[in-house]
Amino acid sequence: MPHSGHVHSDPEVTENSRIHRHEHTQTKVVVNRLSRAIGHLESVKRMVENGQDCAEVLMQLSAVESAIHNTGKIILKDHIEHCLVDAVENGDQESIELLNKAIERFIR
Question: Domain total for the chain?
Fold first, then answer.
């Protein structure tokens, strides 16, 4: 299978994974947002463990969900601006199809 350039941070790339060779401009922003969301989710978990009010737990859980969704938007935008442009320029129809599937799952 030809490789097209997307560098995965996971060193164990499966044979079905594609490898692209370009930088994502929002990596640090995404990692920081995910770290904050993880911390927030841990605090929600503690709220549940401590028996805090269900309405407050649900509100905080909604905030975590929103933070994760907004982070996904950043990833999607970055992917479109970089990976998709590369895929179109290289005629990489498989990457375009994979993006379409990912978008379908993301917007559910």
Answer: 1
Which residue segment(s) compose the domain that 59 sits in?
25-106
Q: Is the pTM of this model over 0.85?
A: no
pLDDT average, residue stretch 40-69: 98
Sign of the Cα pseudo-torsion (29, 77, 66, 10, in order): negative
Q: Residue 1 domain-assigned?
A: no
Answer yes or no: is 50 within a domain: yes
- Per the prediction, the chain carries an average pLDDT of 82
Report pLDDT digits (tens) over 14-41. Answer: 344 455 555 678 899 999 999 999 999 9
CATH number assigned to the domain comprising residue 30: 1.20.58.1000
Angle at 10 between CA 32 and CA 6, to 5 degrees: 85
Q: How many CB atoms lie within 10 A of CB 102?
A: 14
Q: C-alpha angle with apex 14: 8 to 15, nearest 5 degrees?
A: 115
